[in-house]
Fold 3-dehydrosphinganine reductase.
Amino acid sequence: MLLLAAAFIVAIVLLLYMVSPLISPKPLKLPGAHVVVTGGSSGIGKCIAIECYKQGAFITLIARDENKLLQTKKEIEKYSVNDKQVVLCISVDVSKDYEQVENVLKQAQEKLGPVDLLVNCAGTSVTGKFEDIEVNSFERLMAVNYLGSVYPSRAVISTMKERRMGRIVFVSSQAGQLGLFGYTAYSPTKFALRGLAEALQMEVKPYNIYITVAYPPDTDTPGFAEESKTKPLETKLISETSSVCQAEQVARVIVKDAIQGNFNSFVGSDGYMLSILTSGMSPVTSITEGLQQVRLAKVL
Ligand SMILES: NC(=O)C1=CN([C@@H]2O[C@H](COP(=O)(O)OP(=O)(O)OC[C@H]3O[C@@H](n4cnc5c(N)ncnc54)[C@H](OP(=O)(O)O)[C@@H]3O)[C@@H](O)[C@H]2O)C=CC1
Ligand SMILES: CCCCCCCCCCCCCCCC(=O)[C@@H](N)CO
């Protein structure tokens, strides 16, 4: 009897494994692809751009500061793998005016072709106790981190649907998986990205478009250094329970997950545990991911 039950379970698992390639998307081919990275002039975004460029992609960098953009362009171009590759720089604030964002993306697409992968990485943070954070920071962070991801995505989605292909990445944060002391202005903006991503994924999956939400831990970047200057002690102590990552490592993971079309993207063992603990009803991209959530959620 026991043997029969065991055989039954093995058969089910084998069956699930057999059908799993049917539900996971075909990997995106980066050579020759047009990749747009907002926040591509610094930190994680810059490393994502470099990673894609090394794999043969054409890059559009979007950020505000033109000098930083040009400097980054030069840095990226050192990694070219063929002489056709282009790095295009666009200076625009992704959070202010939708029309403007739509326009610059139209220009970029005229030059480098339709966007195959959009990485929404532009973002910023403010930490402090709720009562100490300036009231206008709440609005500013929501504008940059949330609307600044809505606008570029909204501007490319119709073409992606027409072409029946495309990938969009939203760079959330571990602070978008759980609320933490000091992050009352920042965390909600990163939670919002997950809501957007889940809803959008449901809409665009029939069009072969795949969404990835990345939840990086603290990562050694200019933005992180800036944040650390005013971070409350409590926040520092809590954050130290999770390690500080290198931007190159985080970027590699995000690019890999975007290529594979994985919905959840996390780094390291605490990233793994957090993703299981906070999986909720967000889409799974493989049978194993679903099984692991069911098996491990209670234990963790
Ligand atoms: N570093 C970390 O510890 C973690 C970071 N993240 C998230 O990853 C993303 C990147 O972080 P990180 O690399 O540290 O950031 P950086 O501060 O190093 O870089 C931010 C980038 O975004 C651009 N940017 C900022 N605001 C705007 C805007 N309004 N319009 C257009 N571009 C803008 C900046 O250029 P410019 O100022 O010239 O516009 C820059 O290129 C952020 O969304 C952040 O929240 C998530 C988890 C951990
Ligand atoms: C069982 C699971 C245990 C896991 C423990 C996890 C503890 C959480 C630490 C979270 C650190 C905060 C990251 C915010 C990063 C960020 O977005 C800013 N640095 C942006 O600049």
User: Anything to note?
Assistant: The first strand starts at residue 34 and ends at 38. The domain at 28-296 is CATH 3.40.50.720 (Rossmann fold). The chain has a mean pLDDT of 95. Residues 29 and 257 are 13 Å apart (CA to CA).
